[in-house]
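Let us begin with a simple case.
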Amino acid sequence: MAGIGEFYGGMLHPLLVLPHMLALLVFALMLGQSGIGAMRVAYPPYMLALVFGLLLAGFEAQPALPFQEILLLLALFCGLTVAAQYPLPPSVLAILAGVLALLVGMDSGVSDMNRREAFAALLGCWLGAVLLLILVAGLAEVAQQAWQRIALRVVGSWTAASAALVLALALRPAA
């Protein structure tokens, strides 16, 4: 985003790229539904894998993968899990956190920036993605009343539907 600087642009990046935002939002809801114990297990691999993915993106060393389509598939899976309120084991959540963070990091590449600007943008992206996960998971975890749990499930189902629609558009054959 022009005019706000590389760091703040990086912080907003996870919110402005639709596959990143959908995947991170619904994964955070899934973590919050799973409780504090799951959060404690999933946060460290998430933060470390995000650093590694952003480093790969910064050095432009990431493989050519369909990152956004994979993130949309993960958002679809996580959304269905939230909607069904199906608890995954903490070890699966930790692996999922690492994979999701690695993909988000590798898809957050910077171009046409010097090293200092790229570092600021990637650091901002890391902070934005970490804050998004912690804040949304924390809000989901404290949602204990019945109507709040239903609202989380509704958001999960809408996120799954949104991910499915965007994925269908992304995979449609060219005209």
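The second case is a distinct protein. As before, the sequence precedes its structure tokens.
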Amino acid sequence: MTIQSGVGLRIFKDFDRPSPSLIAKFKGIPSSNINDEMNRLFCMRHNIKPLNQRPLVGPAVTVKVPMGDNLLLTNAMDLAKPGDIIVVDGEGCEERALMGEMMLTFFEKRGIAG
């Protein structure tokens, strides 16, 4: 699922998720090892950190938002499925939070993995 702004507003509400058996094969493998095997094409920057502190493995729901605007993130809250991991591109904005404790609690209650 890709939710992004920019050229208009595009929300892709459905995408093919990998099978649970494929996801399970990645559990316990450090992301740096996976990154090395994929020619370093798909790993995030070192300063991106999860809001929860447990290992993450699952389908990514990607969200691109304008600086300081979390409207599309709130849409992702409703579109994500249990086990999904929401990854947000906030355009590097560090002046405003895109998410807080109430949103994190909502994600946890819905079974969003991270």
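DSSP finds four helices and four strands in the chain. The beta strands are 2-4, 10-11, 60-64, 85-89.
Keep these points in mind for the review questions at the end of the chapter.
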